[in-house]
Design brief:
about 270 residues, alpha/beta, D-Maltodextrin-Binding Protein, domain 2, five-stranded mixed β-sheet, three-stranded parallel β-sheet, globular, binds arginine
């Protein structure tokens, strides 16, 4: 059942990925030619990486649609801003470059703003906070970082977790780091014993563990909190409008409702 979920998700993901190269990308680019005469621009294309429940994912038992907290928030915000939202799935690794190149209008994917990324995109105010967990097989006895001596740690390519994994390898001897494009691939590698551990954000890790009873998650000492924000092209006037809309949604209690819906404590 859970395996089916992962494979189905992976299949849908690669399908939508294959499909997005020409069509939707072109739509966004075309639209962006009238970016500065924003008035008649009715659709905003949001890029995301739908492998990150509860932020963005596909539940094939329900539909092929991308759902999650980020999607609900983006819908509400863009509606307030007077736009329609179109969601496009891509690999996490391509999101910031796609925003930078105006191939998509913005991205929400549980993205953590940092200095390096902020050099190439503009971030909105932060809308959530998480920190990193470690996923291992259930029988892996993880108490402290040193228990990872000589182990293989995985993370999503170009994610903050890749940096976290590398930081661990700098501290603990014999740790090697491997990356994969999509989170379900990382989960499979741990299940198959090809990776000993992966670094993943708390609530996302809890979700994957819930689906995979042979895995567990553990807290990692000394990691920083991770904020979440939407990324827009540098200089975009939409950032201000976006922040304003989020603030209104916060004040009206809408965001709390979305959080209660998606970030459920089990
Ligand atoms: N917060 C992390 C980062 O910004 C990971 C986000 C991964 N998101 C995803 N949809 N897979 O690097």
């Amino acid at each position: 059942m859970k395996k089916k979920w992962l494979f189905a998700a992976a299949a849908v993901l690669s399908l939508s990925l294959a499909g997005c190269g020409s069509n939707s990308t072109k739509t966004a680019t075309d639209k962006n030619t009238d970016q500065n005469t924003d008035q008649n621009k009715k659709v905003l294309v949001m890029g995301t990486s739908a492998d990150f429940a509860p932020f963005e994912y596909i539940d094939p038992t329900k539909s092929n649609e991308i759902i999650g907290f980020d999607v609900d928030l983006a819908k509400a915000v863009t509606q307030k801003m007077g736009y329609q939202l179109k969601v496009q799935d891509m690999e996490f690794n391509s999101l910031i470059p796609a925003v930078q190149a105006n191939k998509i209008d913005f991205s929400m994917a549980g993205i953590t703003p940092n200095k390096k990324r902020a050099e190439v995109v503009d971030f909105t105010d932060s809308y959530y906070d998480t920190h990193d967990y470690l996923i291992t097989k259930k029988d892996f006895n993880f108490k402290k970082l040193d228990d990872l001596k000589g182990k293989k740690i995985g993370a999503q390519v170009s994610s903050i977790e890749e940096d976290t994994a590398k930081a661990i390898s700098g501290k603990v001897s014999g740790v090697s780091v491997e990356t994969r494009d999509r989170v379900p691939e990382l989960i499979q590698e741990v299940k198959l014993g090809r990776l000993d551990a992966i670094v993943l954000e708390d609530i996302v890790a809890e979700n994957y563990v819930k689906q995979n009873k042979d895995l567990k998650y553990s807290k990692i000492e000394g990691v920083e909190n991770q904020k979440k924000a939407a990324a827009f092209p540098k200089g975009s006037k939409l950032v201000k409008e976006y922040n304003k809309a989020v603030k209104e949604l916060k004040d009206s209690g809408e965001i709390d409702k979305m959080k209660a819906k998606w970030f459920k404590v089990k």
